[in-house]
Amino acid sequence: MSGLLRVLRSVRWYVRELTDESAYDRYATHVRTAHPDALLPSRREFERERTERQESDPRQGFRCC
User: Fold this and answer.
1) pLDDT average per 10 residues of sequence, the chain (65 residues)
2) Which InterPro entries does its entry note (predicted)?
3) By C-alpha distance, which of 40, 21, 43 is closest to 30?
């Protein structure tokens, strides 16, 4: 059972990295260590700002919908 659990954790990690679901976790860790006095935005605010930044940058490709 522990082998299956290890495989499932690995798959979960891979999918989170592939879809960039872990971006907020990495950002929060960076802010807490490098800028401990800074205000950390909520996940929702972070995702909204990230989406706006990506859509405003033409190098990110285009969005059809």
Assistant:
1) 94 92 94 95 94 80 61
2) Sel_put (IPR007423)
3) 40
43 and 28 in contact (C-beta within 8 Å)?
A: no
Signed CA dihedral, 17, 22, 23, 25: sign only: negative
Q: Which two structure tokens, joined as six digits, stand for 30?
A: 């960076």
Q: Give dist(CA 62, CA 6) in Å, integer.
A: 37
Q: What is the DSSP string of 5-63?
A: HHHHHHHHHHHHHHTTTTHHHHHHHHHHHH-TTSPPPPHHHHHHHHHHHHHH-GGG---
Q: Quickly tell me which residue has 């950002």 as its tokens.
A: 27
